[in-house]
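User: Could you go from structure to sequence for me? I need the amino acid at each position, not a summary. Structure tokens:
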């Protein structure tokens, strides 16, 4: 499978700003067509290797216009990686690669990252198409990179698990950015809630475990999926005294490899063995059978979040505020060793 499209296949997790799906479809062709010109203007690819413990993430800016632009993009990616590390302080995989490819603005699409995807073949790579004139603040405000990095927490789950995969990335794109200050915590709840509303507005359809890649169901797949993970995270905290972060940390250590692929049910069972203790399977059984958007009333009550149309209000009740902060609150920075592979070589 070489096409890049959300429907394309067993090894790719393709995501894009949904307003840009039409663009995403056209992007590889356009990129190829413009590659010769870009190659003339660009300086050499710029690669850095980020290390945390025995985990290693290569970040490659494929076609920066000059070294200063490469530095700027590396700084942006380093911040997105900090967000990823706020889950449990390590990379989920021992080895992974992020590739940034600069592409010209197409039409009037304003998105600074019009396309991102996670490719699982010969290792795991996150590929990000970045608009060549996108500024730092636009990039920092965009969710795509943290969304894609969040796909590294789970194995490949096939079409049947797409709602779990996209749901986890959609949940964490807000949670992880809030933890490192890329989003204000209350704004992160608002964004999650906005997603839930879009998912609810998509109406009813097939059961979640039968929804696959169904056309027209994208909002439900992403945001009913995110609702599942919020529900599971809260159930873990309530019933097991641990967080989704902790369960994913244990899962990454015992079970997640670069070539991991499994079924949704086997993934859920493995998470329960990694600390979920049955909590996640119970939430999964409930959500997998749903044909409409899940009610979040009990979760919102526990979090002290009230909705009034599009407005959210947050309860000052200390226990509820603590629960919200446990999910979205700031995290201490994790030490990351950075090496430029051009200088240090790639000898290990
Ligand atoms: Zn995704």
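Assistant: Here is the amino acid at each position, in order:
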């Amino acid at each position: 499978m070489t096409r890049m499209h959300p429907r394309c296949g067993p090894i790719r997790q393709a995501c894009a700003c949904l307003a840009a799906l039409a663009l995403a479809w056209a992007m590889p062709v356009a990129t190829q067509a413009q590659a010769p010109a870009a190659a003339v203007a660009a300086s050499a690819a710029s690669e850095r290797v980020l290390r945390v413990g025995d985990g290693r993430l290569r970040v490659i800016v494929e076609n920066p216009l000059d070294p200063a632009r490469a530095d700027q993009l590396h700084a942006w990616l380093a911040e997105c990686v900090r967000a990823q590390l706020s889950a449990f302080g390590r990379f989920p995989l021992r080895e992974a690669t992020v590739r940034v490819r600069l592409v010209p603005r197409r039409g009037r699409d304003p998105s600074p990252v019009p396309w991102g995807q996670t490719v699982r073949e010969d290792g795991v790579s996150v590929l990000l198409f970045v608009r060549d004139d996108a500024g730092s603040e636009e990039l920092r405000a965009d969710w795509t990179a943290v969304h894609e990095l969040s796909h590294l927490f789970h194995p490949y789950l096939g079409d049947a698990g797409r709602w779990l995969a996209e749901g986890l990335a959609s949940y964490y794109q807000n949670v992880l950015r809030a933890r490192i200050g890329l989003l204000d915590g209350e704004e992160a709840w608002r964004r999650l809630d906005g997603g839930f509303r879009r998912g609810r507005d998509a109406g009813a359809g097939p059961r979640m475990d039968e929804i696959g890649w169904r056309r027209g169901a994208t909002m439900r797949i992403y945001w009913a999926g995110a609702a599942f993970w919020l529900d599971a995270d809260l159930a873990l905290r309530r019933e097991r005294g641990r967080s989704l972060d902790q369960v994913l940390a244990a899962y990454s250590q015992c079970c997640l490899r670069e070539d991991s692929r499994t079924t949704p049910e086997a993934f859920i069972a493995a998470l329960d063995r990694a600390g979920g203790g049955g909590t996640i399977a119970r939430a999964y059984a409930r959500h997998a059978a749903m044909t409409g958007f899940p009610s979040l009333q009990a979760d919102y009550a526990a979090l002290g979040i009230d909705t009034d149309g599009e407005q959210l209000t947050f309860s000052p009740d200390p226990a509820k505020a603590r629960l919200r902060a446990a999910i979205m609150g700031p995290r201490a920075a994790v030490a990351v060793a950075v090496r430029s592979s051009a200088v240090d070589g790639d000898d290990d």
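One structural detail worth keeping in mind: Confidence is low (pLDDT under 50) at residues 1-10, 16-40, 343-348.
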